[in-house]
Amino acid sequence: MTEPNDPYRTDNAGTSAWPSQSQHDPYGQTSSPYGMPNPYGDPAFGADGSNHRRPNVSFGRAIKLFFKNYAVFHGRASRSEYWWVALFSALVNVALNIINTGTGGTNDNPTTVYLVLAAIWSLGTLIPGLSLAVRRLHDANRSGFHLFWLLLPFIGWIVLLVFFCQNSHPDAWHKYDDGPLPAED
């Protein structure tokens, strides 16, 4: 006869009730019943998704991802990824205004240099900005169609600001992660 904690015993003690998980537990511990937490804090099947959050990114990595995922409207973008790009865009706009002022232009009468540079920047970041906004909405478990709030002045902008500031929703990965983004590094 074998000892109670003998890993070579032939009875079913310490095994899971599910056929796909019927491997013998060499430590003699029983599997947790359905609905009970797993021993030692192990993740369970169908976990809450908290480990599926998009990682926080640094300033440089956010800018790199912004341009690499140029027209990717699926997937998700973390808050840090979105707000680092927003800061970068604001800094570029400040630099463009400094160029305008330095070349003798004013807000009422901008210089040609400023107009050309501002047009290039605006056209070059329109599609990546929209795709990043859609991915940020996906991370908050919202549809990308919420961008139509932009058509409603002031109120719509405030609504979108609230959506962009929301935490990552733990279940958003179920709906919006249909594979990795083309560039994640």
Gist?
The chain contains 5 helices and no strands. It has helices spanning 59-68, 79-102, 112-139, 155-165, 172-176.
Q: What percent of residues adopt helix (DSSP H or I)?
A: 40-55%
- General shape: elongated
Alpha carbon gap, first and last residue: 57 Å
Number of domains: 2
CA-atom Rg in angstroms: 26 Å
InterPro entries: DUF805
Transmembrane segments: 82-100, 112-134, 146-164
Protein name: DUF805 domain-containing protein
Organism: Cutibacterium porci
Explain what you see.
It is built from five helices and no strands. By secondary structure, it is mostly helical. It folds into two domains: 1-47, no CATH class; 57-176, no CATH class. The termini are far apart. The model has no long low-confidence stretch (mean pLDDT 81). Residues 1-47 are annotated as: Disordered.
Write the layout of secondary structure elements.
Layout (H helix, E strand, L loop, with lengths): L58 H10 L10 H24 L9 H28 L15 H11 L6 H5 L9
Key features?
single chain; 185 residues; mainly alpha; 2 domains; 5 helices; 42% helix; elongated; DUF805
